Amino acid sequence: MPANPVDAVEARPPLGKLIPLALQHVLVMYAGAVAVPLIIGRALGLSPGDIAFLISADLFACGLATLVQCAGPPGIGIRLPVMMGVTFAAVGPMLAMAATPEVGLLGIYGSVIAAGVFGLVVAPSISRLLPLFPPVVTGTIILVIGISLMRVGINWAGGGLPTVTRMVDGVPGTFPNPAYGGLPGLGIALFVLLVILALIKWGTGFIANVAVLLGIVAGSVLALFLGLMHLDRVAAAPWFAPVLPFHFGWPSFHLVPIATMCVVMVVVMIESLGMFLALAEITGRPVDGAALARGLRADGLGTLLGGVFNTFPYTSFSQNVGLVGVTGVRSRFVTVAGGVIMLILGLLPKMAALVEAVPQVVLGGAGLVMFGMVAATGARILATVDFRTNQKNMFVVAVAVGFGMIPLVAPAFFRNLPHALHPLLESGILLAALVAVLLNAVFNGLGSAEQARSEATAAAAAAEHV
């Protein structure tokens, strides 16, 4: 008799099948996993060596968080086939913190650690907040996340930022970036984009699933051939180095950044709830309140570990949930093995140095797809919302997106408000989330918990193949 769905989750494939299946999960998430440390590291003006370390730390913490989620200690972990990665939802707030000198990288880590502790504490109660986050709210938030990140992808495609800061006679000055918008760089970014689109159109199965990663590889080869990518730092990097806690120093803790990251944590955990419910449908393993609480505690513990090991908040990656549905392989031990592979990659500085060496124009071509797909996921969730008979939903989306665009199109809009609030006000994602939750509650009220669970499952199912 064939194994029942519950047995399939606990099945242990032989090693010859386990490793390729685990590598498949790693490859599907790899490009998204390394994007956030690249964004934050370059926004902070870190050295190439420090950015490479951020990438190593991120891969290492990805592995830790995945192991916690799939095979964690008692009371922690959903124990379903989940791969954990840094959430894009935290990028906007962290960029705002990075732009605040008294917060900086150590303040980001302090807020991440505090948010992880907050997540551990509130995990059992978070499902009660589901009625605050119907698809009209979550879809709007994810749409704004994607639109906000597009600025990063576009600047990558242009070759960095239009201006650069450098010291002249001991005084920092801002100067035009001569490489920005150069034709060779734009050509490489376009080449990467076309490779990805071609693989998506004509590739099948696994090839289509890793189109972004293959596009980055193709663009890197072209950049290397044109002399625009240099491997000196890769050659100089050691083969092995541990990822030690608090590599950059002891974290600092600031009230407004902590409150901001806790709001992000709530949004991330609500999204995780939807992913867990969708994964339960895919695997056939029912999840009750206790199982959901275990999964959310793993989000909190993973985020806490992220702050300790020099990286950022973690959540389940939707593309890997989609991969479970596509392949039909439901064993959690596949993603356990994937977590081990991520741990090993995090201990290999040459891998991180290679990623850091990829020119920004190459990443730009991929970023347009990667970040655009985040926005498309939000649009896909919004497609499940009833706009025809309930036009109030249109106003929820319209006003929330408008607030979310303020920091993007008018960075000085809030300059006369208290400086301590800037990490909150300069994050379009947080503004959109707060406005969407408030307007939905005013216009639509709050539904039942059961209705919220059903809507969360439908929304996650709409997003799982992106």
UniProtKB/TrEMBL annotation:
Gene Ontology annotations for the cellular component aspect, listed alphabetically: plasma membrane
Transmembrane portions of the chain: 21-45, 51-68, 80-100, 106-124, 136-158, 178-199, 206-228, 248-270, 333-355, 361-383, 395-414, 420-443
Subcellular locations according to the entry: Cell membrane
Keywords: Cell membrane, Membrane, Transmembrane, Transmembrane helix, Transport
Keyword Cell membrane: yes
GO molecular function: xanthine transmembrane transporter activity
InterPro entries registered for this protein in UniProt: NCS2, UacT-like, Xan_ur_permease
Pfam family, one: Xan_ur_permease
Membrane topology of the entry: Multi-pass membrane protein
Family statement: Belongs to the nucleobase:cation symporter-2 (NCS2) (TC 2.A.40) family.
Entry protein name: Purine permease
